[in-house]
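Researcher: I'm preparing a figure for a lab meeting and need a structural model of a single chain. I don't have an experimental structure, so a prediction will have to do for now. The sequence is pasted below. Please return the structure as tokens so I can convert it later.
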Amino acid sequence: MNAPVPSEAQLDVLREVANIGCGHAVNALARLVGGKRVELSVPRVIVTTASEVAEQLGGEEVVTSVKLGIVGELRGLMLFVMPSRDSAALGKVLLGHVIGGVELESALSEAANIVASACLSAIGKLTRWRLLPTVPELRGGSAREVVGAALRDTEGQQTSKVVVLEARFSASSAPPVSGRMLLVLERDSSSALLHRLGV
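Model: Understood. Here is the structure written out token by token.
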């Protein structure tokens, strides 16, 4: 039986969890891009089915995404989505020269792993749970395709409810880089998180 939909007060707590986790994530990203300033939007929380997430967050824009599962007491995934031009720009910032192919994929995957680890570590400190990311999986295509595929791979059932914590980031690097971070939790798992936090 699915957990009940979070109340507005519980959604506020989830937003704060996302704010803390993503705050640590962008600090890690800022270090990766040489200490440049990285802006973070106020996270939003969406409770919907896995199949609808791709439509709400998707579109026809060509993007690069890196998916990481979560090892520990939470069930779900982290997803980093960037327009393809921004992923190429991030690769240039990370390594100091224009890259492509396997070299770009490796750099983006490692960056996502570092950023995801920082996010999950921050949430772990809040909950006293040990949370780790799985091996990154990189995929390209339209935003609708890559978000949809990531959720299909993870959730299996497209009708199951999920809780999505989403925040957008932008780095004032040269060239500039922007994208978004998604933390997708099975609804039962989000309820376990709220219970752990005493909400």
